[in-house]
Amino acid sequence: MRKFWRRCVLPVTLTLPAVLLSVAAAAGPERPVVDTDRGPVRGRSHGAYTTFEGIPYAAPPTGSLRWRLPEPAPRWEEVRDAGAAGSRCVQLPAVGPGGPSGSEDCLYLNVTAPAPAAGAARGARRPVMVWFHGGGFVNGAGDLYPAERLAVRGDVVVVTVNYRLGILGLFGHPELGGAPGFALADQQAALHWVRANAERFGADPHNVTVFGESAGALSVCAHLTSPASAGLFHKAIVQSGSCSTTMPPWSLLPTLGTYEPFEPERRTVADGVPAAARLGCGGSTAVLDCLRRLDIRTLVTPELTQTFSQMSYGGAQLPEEPRRALETGRFHRVPVMQGTTRDEMRVFVAQTLAVYPVADAAAYRARLERSFGVSTARAVEASYPVSAYPTPAVAWATLLSDASFTCPTLRDSGALARRVPTYGYRFSDGDAPNFTGLPEVPELPYGASHGFELPYLFAVVPLADPQRELADRMAGYWTRFARTGVPAAAGAPWWPRYRSPASVLSLAPGAGGIRTVDARAEHHCALWDARWPAVTSSR
Hints:
disordered N terminus; three-stranded mixed beta sheet; eleven-stranded mixed beta sheet
């Protein structure tokens, strides 16, 4: 299912109202100024924390710089206002019809730092946490993730990053020499900016954690295995997007095969040639010059966005498929924390039930046989009998969650744990708030679905007790890991190092909600591991 994220699953992104920010004329306690390596920026004080938004970390990739690796941002002399986010990268609407929005001039980042007296001793340098957003590599932006909970509770500096998306970030063509991986290169440029500027914001450039969810987690996986990312970070957190993430064929619609987030560079390049021809540039002797003259509405279409929505491997950025790099030990030696949500696939399956229903036991069995074959379907049905679940749709989403996210993540954790300190988690709050704006589906409650842990880390929706208490503990775990490489939280249960799938920490609110579980047993991973990689037949 190569073109999955946009056509059949609306990426789980945050849609928040814009906040209009006035611009103060002079620096002061409410408008602090920091002198970055490119020029001074004026932020905003919010009491316990300060934000600096819309800071350019690279030159605008426009005109002749379209489909080129990021170049340094121009210097400026006057104080630049950093009181509002910069433009988001060009993208189509996550939900419904419409043309592209955003700008090619989008390589901006946002810094959230605790107020000087909020926690760090005078002269002490705080850890840095660099967030790469999700959205299937076709949607999203850094400013959608307000980071004050992490910054204040954990006394860390958080940086959220925009990076090029879709055809502008993942295009490949023979004239480019392959598929250079502009999205990943943008993220690396942001990490170089962090290394150059962290101390100016009271942070430690030698204590940087990269973290992300969904496509952002896949980005972190890529950084773990990319030679160009060496030395740019010191810890990694992977949320619902391990290197081995995959989805069985025809999981969501009968016309769509296996989903894989990474594809061989040769395939991306092969897609680029007919794409250029359809855009009227195939017969040109200078294909890239022709393509660079095209306007955004011509380039950023649903079809081309679907075609270029995966990271490529086999080139300089990612020489090897990331999951195989983990298996063979060819990855950066840093501590890793990674996990999934309990009900990952519910939000995806729910969006396709209207056109591909799982109405009864017969439809459930037919789906099993179509996706896995008759003999394997029997084994899967024995582990996931439809009678054990409230509805056939819940049964189907449960087995897909295990096969696509949970068990691949546990396999990756095992490979990591053989060489680096590794910690595994499962977000298990079945009553997590639905912050997506998607309507509820009675036959398939979202539960702890894909991305539903995000409000517990970022201030995207209000939380009430006991979920607020869980959010505080999760922020404590995440930021303590960023500080020391060991997740811990005051008053919270001990988080054991990953030595087997029986040492996964389940995160849920209430008394006893945080506990160690045997995730491999609970999610039937013996079944899926015995058939791996047969369930991903297109690899």
